[in-house]
């Protein structure tokens, strides 16, 4: 059957939660529908689930679902909300915790590094430390405090990641304009805002020549890439018909999709198959979004198992083994 590796799955801890409540400014904790929910500018952002704080609970859930290894990461808003000292210390604390949990569950847990991206010198130092501690890759939000991932202020961090050849999980957060676009209503941050955040971030990377500058970086686009699989033809048409789209890159945007990996969190079989057709069988990775309230290890795995039999094992874990060198 092959090894099943979950590349999109999260863990928090109590210290992170208390720190964001003490220092997070625009983030607050409220009760909603009987559950604790982190809010951003008054809009629901993330429902806190018991599984986010309990690794033994996670292992039991993995056993039930048939998942062998979880590559865990912190989730948004990560550590992008504090001053330099607080954000750096919180990133260090999360990396220490995940490294310790890998030691506790050496056959089951691997992890993505958390970095204080907004403080580039500290971020590079923590990246190098986390790499020495065993981090397999790096977690980053699709935008950081309103800045795009191609902002020159992040160049030193990207250079270091490129040198270390570490895969990067690009994860959405609340995009700029939540209040202006009335995304608080109907929790549109989740259903639309997150997908827009990922799509815009990686589209900008492509058109900005990011993948030409950083030839060793491989990007994992969360939630089946947002709208990226659907928009690939539109990007190529824009490149062919609109001169501004050719200011930096000389190849069609679709040619850069070979630098992208996509997780399998698609919510429907049809969307997953579109992603497979666009990305190719070697670039699709199993992910679950566990333990979010929308996470579903078993459901996401069942959709992978409904793919053609000749690609199932690659998507379940074979591609991740190659990507991370496991």
Automatic annotation (TrEMBL):
Residues 5-326 form the Amidohydrolase-related domain. One of its GO terms (cellular component) is cytoplasm. Keywords: Lyase. Gene3D superfamilies: Metal-dependent hydrolases. Pfam families: Amidohydro_2. One of its GO terms (molecular function) is hydrolase activity. This is Amidohydrolase-related domain-containing protein. The lineage of its organism: unclassified sequences, metagenomes, ecological metagenomes.
